[in-house]
């Protein structure tokens, strides 16, 4: 066996790494479960911690949180009929009816086991596909990288399907903000207004904390701080673990969900919700008794649950091998690794293959601990649904400030964070999506750098983008990616209206 | 009138006394050790160890703080504007000359005071292991026959690696395309064949050279480097190119001489510590501490060199108020 693989496995299996994976999974389950808190906000809370922790421990913590968050979201979907995370939306269609007829325990059990299966399947994909993909990606030159990043940016259309104009405007603002700082080719100052702090540019993690956390804090403030977290969940669970016959019934939906989830996860930006709905739709359509779906069929819980957990491993593949984030969570993961001087991308597998495998095996453990903690602690965990917001929200606010300061030890970044908070509120007010802006912030700098390096190398000849096979492939994929969300939104609408009819 | 003067004098004296803290020995609280580049890079790894060793010698914690951005200018501006009491120290490098000459800040390197140099390292000219050029002369001959064809990668425009590349290209009298691909892409761009060669700090190129992925053709240095004994200097090959990457310490202007002397002594002792020497041996930089006066002389000469290369390449801009 490759020594890097063994080293990675050993690093990920150190007691400290395992402990932080477990803590991460627990935190993830909690934040995923509580409506009004997202995986992103959970990660923002632990982010300043990861700046000082060892990178192995940091990534274990963050991956635990990512995996746990995906699963936690389904608990509130099943128990409260409110998805804790957007990816859990499809779960409530059959999950809540199951809970309503007193089978909450079974629904949760199916959700946990299906999620575990999906997560493990995506781990295998990550383990098998990522290293070879990285090897190919190592051959990429600036034109290929430009087209790849461009492809990453076209994901914006997926988030902008409701209003293309607002989505593109949001992305344009992001691209504009990226130009602040030093020109990547000439080193000259741009839009710095003579301010030395501005010369360093706007860090996307600072912007992200402001954009996501501040509007969320304000949101939670509105109904009044005295309110309890949410309605009391169902007290009676019934049995938790699925029986053998039920496990057999889960095989088909879990297979469909795992495959769809892992595959759609690899495509940057498609994300959990879409994968969950597509797998649900497909499972129902190919079922022998589709009329049971929507009334509490356990297959209807198993499919989306395995799909949204499989998305996590899938999404880690482009993040690790190409440095392209597919969602806000992987964007933060990239940032958290960069802070440690570890740049996710093809070179990571060459220069720090041991660390790349540490990440992969941490993901494995994250799924294992997620299963253990979810099964063992479920009865306790759901009590947290009633946690008072008066305790939760100030803590988040404090971590926002610490996190943005600690990034570059600069108070300027705290001011930037608050400014982006205001921007986030303003955007929400006019109904403009923030994710395109975020993606533009993460990818914009690279987009410009690769474009200009490519054109410098080719002496201004733009045909390089079309003569390189990789570049051409990514440009074609970009075209597909621009059209895809409209098709999938249409399919999703059909799936949902189909449900309503039955 | 007279009473007013007396009162004012007394007030001034009181203010002066208040401003002077009880004469305690420096240092009596933690020292901020500001690193101009991000975590995990060469400046960070070397700086953190030096800070740690300095802390042991001074008896207070020397806290490494990364303030990356703008090629080092964020850190230099921060330290320049800090209180000149010795508690804020910049871990400088050749970047203190490049970032001030590119014209984004309105001061020169001399706006800070300099404690001393700790180390320096060569910036080798490297090609891919399967490239046709075995020596720098091979590359020079090929390049002269094909002006403007070959591409040389560097860490960023106006950075030390860019300037070293310009200096080498001038010396071998050859016209290339300089690609400022960034620290993260520099090595990858040579491996992918996008760039034909690169100039990198030795600490950033050593692992790939040891792994047999790249070949170091020459170093623009005064002498050979201990960890790459077989790589000739440009001067040995008859090419006049010389630019090393140095690292040392700077403090705000106006820092008391006694404090500077204390910092300088601690810096030199830390540089010579076993731990730091061991890091130098594995990473490939040369520990060669210089005190305040010699470092100032070196800086003045290096600044002329940097300014000269940048002026010639059209990168030099001065925003200094004159």
Can you describe this structure?
The complex is a heterodimer of chains A (502) and B (322). Chain A is mostly helical and 502 residues long. Chain A has one domain (3-501). Chain A has 21 helices and two strands. Chain A has a two-stranded antiparallel ribbon. The longest helix of chain A has 47 residues, at 91-137. The model of chain A is unreliable at 225-235 (pLDDT under 50). By secondary structure, chain B is of the alpha/beta class. Chain B folds into two domains: 30-121 and 245-313, D-Maltodextrin-Binding Protein, domain 2; 125-218, Periplasmic binding protein-like II (D-Maltodextrin-Binding Protein, domain 2). In chain B, the strands form two sheets. A six-stranded mixed sheet of chain B has the order 2-1-3-10-4-11, sandwiched between helices. A five-stranded mixed sheet of chain B has the order 7-6-8-5-9. In chain B, α2 (42-58) links the parallel β1 and β2 (62-66). In chain B, α2 (42-58) crosses α9 (257-271), α2 (42-58) runs antiparallel to α10 (274-283) and α6 crosses α11. The mean pLDDT of chain B is 86. Chain A binds chain B through residues 51, 138-142, 181-189, 192, 196-197, 199-201, 338-343, 345-347, 350-351, 408-410, 449, 453, 456-457, 459, and chain B through 38-41, 44, 65-71, 73-74, 77, 102-105, 148, 151, 156-159, 177, 179-182, 184-185, 187-189, 191-195, 207, 315, 317.
């Amino acid at each position: 066996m490759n020594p890097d693989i063994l080293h990675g496995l050993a690093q990920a299996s150190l007691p400290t790494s395992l402990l932080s994976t477990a803590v991460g999974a627990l935190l993830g389950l909690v934040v995923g479960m509580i409506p009004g808190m997202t995986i992103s906000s959970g990660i923002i809370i632990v982010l300043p911690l990861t700046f000082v922790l060892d990178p192995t421990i940091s990534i274990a913590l963050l991956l635990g949180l990512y995996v746990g968050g995906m699963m936690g979201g389904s608990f509130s979907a099943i128990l409260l009929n409110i998805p804790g995370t957007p990816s859990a939306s499809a779960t409530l269609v059959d999950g809540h009816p199951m809970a309503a007829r007193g089978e909450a325990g079974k629904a949760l059990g199916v959700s946990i086991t299906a999620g575990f299966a999906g997560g493990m399947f995506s781990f295998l994909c990550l383990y098998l596909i990522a290293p070879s993909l990285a090897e190919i990606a190592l051959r990429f030159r600036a034109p290929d990288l430009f087209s790849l990043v461009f492809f990453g940016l076209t994901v914006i259309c997926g988030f902008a399907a409701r209003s293309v104009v607002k989505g593109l405007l949001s992305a344009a603002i992001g691209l504009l903000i990226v130009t602040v700082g030093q020109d990547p080719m000439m080193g000259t100052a741009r839009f710095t207004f003579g301010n030395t702090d501005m010369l360093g540019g706007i860090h996307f993690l600072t912007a992200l904390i402001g954009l996501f956390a501040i509007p969320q804090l304000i949101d939670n403030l509105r109904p009044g701080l005295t309110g309890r977290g949410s309605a009391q969940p169902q007290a009676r669970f019934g049995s938790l673990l699925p029986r053998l016959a039920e496990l057999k019934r889960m095989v088909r939906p879990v297979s469909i969900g795992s495959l769809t989830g892992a595959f759609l996860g690899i495509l940057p930006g498609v994300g959990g919700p879409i994968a969950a709905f597509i797998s649900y739709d497909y499972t129902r359509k190919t079922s022998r008794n589709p009329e049971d779906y929507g009334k509490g069929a356990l297959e209807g819980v198993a499919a989306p649950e395995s799909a949204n957990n499989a998305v996590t491993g899938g999404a880690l593949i482009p993040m690790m091998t190409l440095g392209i984030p597919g969602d806000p969570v992987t964007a933060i993961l990239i940032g958290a690794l960069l802070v440690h001087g570890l740049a996710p991308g093809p070179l990571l597998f060459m220069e720090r293959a041991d660390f790349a495998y540490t990440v992969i095996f941490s993901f494995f453990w994250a799924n294992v601990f997620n299963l253990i903690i979810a099964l063992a602690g479920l009865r306790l965990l759901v009590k947290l649904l009633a946690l008072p917001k008066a305790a939760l929200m100030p803590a988040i606010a404090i971590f926002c400030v610490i996190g943005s300061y600690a990034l570059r030890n600069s108070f300027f970044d705290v001011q930037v964070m608050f400014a982006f908070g205001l921007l986030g509120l303003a955007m929400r007010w006019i109904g403009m999506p923030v994710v395109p802006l975020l993606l533009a912030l993460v990818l914009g700098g690279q987009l410009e750098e690769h474009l200009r390096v490519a054109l410098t190398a080719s002496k201004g000849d733009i045909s390089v983008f079309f003569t390189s096979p990789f570049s051409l492939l990514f440009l074609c994929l970009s075209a597909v990616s621009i059209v895809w969300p409209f098709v999938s939104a249409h399919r999703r609408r059909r799936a949902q209206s189909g449900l309503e009819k039955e | 009138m007279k009473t007013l003067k007396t009162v004012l004098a007394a007030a001034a004296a009181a203010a002066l006394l208040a401003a002077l803290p009880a004469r305690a020995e420096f240092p009596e609280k933690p020292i901020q050790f500001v690193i101009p580049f991000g975590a995990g890079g060469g400046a960070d790894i070397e700086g953190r160890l030096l800070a740690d060793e300095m802390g042991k010698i001074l008896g207070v914690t020397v806290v490494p703080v990364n303030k990356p951005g703008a090629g080092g200018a964020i850190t230099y501006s921060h330290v320049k504007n800090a209180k000149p009491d010795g508690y804020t120290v910049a871990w400088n490098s050749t970047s203190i000359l490049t970032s001030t000459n590119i014209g984004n800040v309105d001061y020169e390197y001399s706006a800070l005071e300099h404690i001393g140099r700790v180390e320096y390292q060569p910036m080798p000219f490297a090609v891919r292991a399967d490239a046709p050029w075995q020596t720098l002369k091979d590359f020079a001959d090929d390049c002269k026959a094909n002006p403007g064809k070959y591409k040389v990668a560097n860490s960023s425009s106006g950075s030390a690696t860019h300037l070293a590349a310009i200096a080498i290209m001038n010396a071998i009298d050859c016209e290339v395309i300089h690609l400022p691909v960034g620290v993260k892409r520099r090595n990858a761009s040579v491996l992918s064949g996008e760039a034909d060669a690169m100039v990198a700090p030795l600490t950033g190129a050593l692992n790939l050279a040891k792994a047999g992925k790249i070949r170091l053709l020459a170093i623009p240095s005064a002498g050979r480097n201990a960890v790459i004994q077989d790589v000739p200097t440009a001067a040995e090959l008859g090419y006049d190119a010389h630019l090393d990457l140095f690292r040392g310490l700077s403090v705000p202007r106006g820092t008391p001489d006694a404090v500077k002397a204390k910092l300088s002594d601690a810096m030199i002792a830390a540089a010579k510590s076993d731990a730091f020497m061991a890091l130098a041996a594995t990473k490939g930089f040369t520990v060669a501490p210089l005190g305040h006066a010699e470092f100032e002389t070196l800086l003045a000469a290096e600044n002329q060199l940097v300014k000269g290369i940048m002026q010639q390449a059209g990168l030099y801009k001065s925003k200094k108020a004159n």
